[in-house]
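Give me structure tokens for this 387-residue protein.
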Amino acid sequence: MRRGSVSEQLVLWDIDGTLLNADGVGRDLYDVVFVQLFGRSIDAFAPMAGRTDRAIILETLTMAGVDEPRRYVDPFIAGLTAQAPSVREMVAIRGRALPGASEVLRGLQGRAHQSVLTGNIRPVAEVKLAAVGLADGLDLCIGAYGDDHEIRAELVPVARRRAAAVHGKSPAEFDGGATVVIGDTPLDIEAALASGARAVGVATGGDEPVHAIALRCQVRIEPLRRTYSDAEATGLIDLFGPRERWATTQRTFLWQHCTAMVPGFTGNTTVALPLDCTYDFEVAAAKYLHALRDGTLPLQFLFSGTIFVKSERGFSVQQVPWDCEYRYDMPVTVWRELIAQHYPNAGWVRLSHETIAALAGYKSEHGMLDLEDAVTSLLVANRETAR
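Here you go.
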């Protein structure tokens, strides 16, 4: 048979967002296992879209402040495996095969070796596919899974070796364009290109007109994603303590919740998401931002909300997929310039009524012009006393 013919193709499908929508079952599963291992719920999840379970677990444990998190990756995977039967039940109720998935799998039967390249561990991948009726069209023995390797790009060689062993071929026969990786995230495409495979991106936008989206977003700050100068570290003592304690005190924390009403569109659209910026030093995010001198602000956006779709059958309501998330490194200068515009050469400090009255009395007694003079005088007196 001529090399490169259709029957020699290895087609590897991503699962979540490409073949099916599991409606957030993955996050629920992680929380169940985390409670079993550590007796508390997860404060924040690592980004999941396009990543392997090994990578997600390790980062989630790190963010949660677990000591020696790599030690717990395999026990966590064992916990996920034990929960696989319940995953099938949840996906059967909440999940769905995406439009066209079943048809395209049937269309390629007998024309290519079809399996999966997924971030899910194998037991969870199998039950998700079975729950929505997609397992029969795939040879899951030759796939690659989230428990095979931490890095998604390394899964392509794993699938090639397994396909070669099952079909009595050399792994080299699936090199290059003989392997096709199909997925919906940039990491799917990167994995294909890094291994010389063909890449097919699946657009997540649909053809049905969207009437509106009531969009919600949780914006979080991930302090572990950047380094800090000594001056910045001094400004962060109130939040994280001294630098030597940061391994346990620096965790992802909430900046704010924001919302936006997205007007109707078809396919794709762009909308502004307004973020409120405060200079209130009682707010942790304001303290963090004030301490940064340069570089970037490491942000994580976790999207949710309700999608209103109008079709020939009338209106339907869907939820924004649970894995819609994004990371962005915002230049610190953006925040500093905004604050300088609204608080030129000044800041804002919240004080109790009693403290303000005491400062006003001190100002009057000493014939000072304003409260800033009163505060400055008290600071000078305090430094002299400390000597």
